[in-house]
Amino acid sequence: MQAKLKVSRFDPETMGQGQRRWDEFELDVHPSATVLDALIQIREEVDGTLSLRCACRASICGSCGMRVNGDAKLVCKTRIVDTFKDGETIVVEPMGNQAIIKDLVVSLDPFFDKVRQVDPYLQPDAEPDQGEFVASNDSMVNLLTAMNCIMCGACVSDCTVLEVDEAFIGPAALAKAWRFVEDPRDDQRDERLKELNDVEGGIWDCTRCFKCVEVCPKDVAPMDRIMEMRDMAIEAGNTNTPGYRHTESFNKSVKKHGRLDEARLAVESAGYTNVPRLIDLAEIGIRSTLKGKMPPIVPHKADDKEKITRIFERVESERK
Amino acid sequence: MYKHDVLIIGAGLAGLRAAVEATRLGLDVAVISKVHPVRSHSNAAQGGINAPLTDRGDDWEGHALDTIKGSDYLADQDAVEIMSSEAGDAVIELERMGVIFSRGEDGRLGTRRFGGQLVARTFFVGAITGSAILHVLYEQALKHGLNTYEEWFVTDLIVEDGRCVGVVALDVKTGELHSIWAKAVIMAAGGAGRVFEPSTNAIICTGDGLALAWRAGVPMMDMEMVQYHPTTLARTGILLSEAARGEGAHLLNSEGERFMLRYAPQYEELASRDVVSRAEQTEINEGRGIEGNVLLDLRHLGREFIEDRLGYLQEVSVEFLGIDLAEQPVPVRPGVHYIMGGIKTDVDGATIVPGLYAAGECANVSVHGANRLGANSLLDTVVFGRRSAVHAADYIKSVDAGSGSDEHLNETKSRIQSLLDRAPNENWAAVRNFMANEMTKGIGVFRDQRSMEGAKAAIDNVDERINKISVQNKGKVFNTDLIFTLEMEFMADVGKAVVHSALARKESRGAHFRTDITERDDENWLKHTLAYQDADN
Q1: Whether the complex's predicted ipTM surpasses the cut of 0.90
Q2: Domains annotated on chain B, with CATH
Q3: Which among A164, A225, A244, B67 is most buried, taking Cβ atoms within 10 Å?
């Protein structure tokens, strides 16, 4: 089988930061070859200067995260025949949101710094006198979702928040945090939730774009983990945050009007006593008004708003 | 200048377990690894970790007996006694660190059955046990603020006055060479599966630790004992865990027969790995295979069970072969998986070179003898990783640091420069692929004098070519071309030790099955083979 690859190249010794070169390769590969097989074939037979990371070839070590035709993937489990149309060029680039060291190799230092930030180790108050901690099998199977994470960095690569906000702890590290929050053997649950709630770049910074869920090669679904932690943080009493107020205001508005009251949402998310933020919003309000983009002060109401209210009531009563 | 009390080479289970122990003992510890710790090959261990837990009716003697029988009596019984009797504490400790082991109804650790044992004493996390333990040990390393040299490649051990006092290593990201001094060095650099092709092993398993210790004068022991795992995927050699059979999967030949019932009526599919691999190879050789494979059948276990308990196997099978295990049997064959042989150590991980310890797959204590039982390798790493650290901590009390001289560093610098300066000639990959294919041919599931001599001829050929390998990449930053060339030299050393050890053993035992001498010869060969680098010259 023929495969056409276009590979992003960067050599810090001869090129300036931000520069790159595209090299094209045409190879004869095995019919069930993966993108990694093709890249290995290039470095072994065509161009020994190509640098990439890989180890296990079996989607368990997390080394070979790269962008393939725009999306972060583990190239070892990306079979050419399943992924690309016949003769389609396979474009391979290093992962995003991470500095390129050489060719397809990125620096994962910030990635692991973020992991470190969530105190990623079990913190029990006391250990059992003898034997293991007793815990239900279901509680352990639940943790398996996040323990499947192999720290490949694919979610971080394609995270749309990290693109604009370096402080965001990010999907992988937050999924790691979830693993301890949910572990019945850990005694720092409330402290962890409070920290993740309060800290800059914490659980409220996710914009729910679903990208991490889409690209995660191990079905960790980091965004779902983050959303679960938001609920848990609120339940644990962490309500003095823009994130919580935003959720509440959103809820209230839709329940009441069947539609979103955008002006009120902005003010209520900031908090009525948050003067600096309110001044910011006033400025934004003036600029929006001048451009005719100011949302109505008295919100529009949905035609069937009673139906929507009933949906809310039903969901609320079922939750109880 | 980089300087520590204890330097650990390798950040898999053995290395990290040693590091956690040494840190707890208050030492200045560092781990150096050519990959980030969580990329280590311990990840690939799927099925579980054995431990006879006495508080639930098991006894260590039973585990020890199974291990010794499984080893075809080559394992050292004192070492096995230590491993079996410390196993319970080791597993409980991992659980307390945070490993999410599967549980029973009562909320206590649950087990599955593994090969070569009639008792279910294998503790597990789905089919990702190695990965789940590795990540937890990494968490512990972060908790203790362990020093790590990540993506640093060790090129040489520094031996002064007969003592190991540090290493010379290449920082892969910068391409700079450095000396790192330590009063004791623990080698935990993993296996050497890449000496063979195909192999279940990661591309990083190139026997670096084995070769480094060998060059420092330590013998490699029982290197002919290369384990062929019975269930590896066709072509790529990717592993499908023994856990599949532990949970009830069957092996079928082309006639749909469960042939293991014939070969091992008592243990059936869960006979020890050497036995199952030979049975499969016999079926294939006698024309009852399917394109060089037999079939692993999980269909009767049901989709839900497969996805819950063997999820990673399903993932691998679907992703790499497009086979849904709940619908179709998957073709498998014996493939190189593990090397029982390794750096000769005592039960505290000490080698004959003071200051040099070894643990994990690169070491040979020996607890696996001629055939390792499934789920004993993880146990080996944590038990002897810990013991090496304890012993090293004691040893360093009475020794001084090395000289701090630049002599070793400069030697390595000029050696690597001359390697980079070589005129274009051989390519490391061509040499490696040739050697690895010939090794599998010669030192296979079945072997004889002629096949082993074939492998020896290949190794001799490699010996001639290896000094002609040229490095295409002359740059410094992340020069994997250079790393692979250095790894090739390590692999050639390991290959040499394997071939000479295999030729030396004039009997069949465990994984070393000779079709020209089919009997085990306890009278003459109930002993280890030792390969020294000097002996060859």
Answers
A1: yes
A2: 233-333 (3.90.700.10), 407-536 (1.20.58.100)
A3: B67
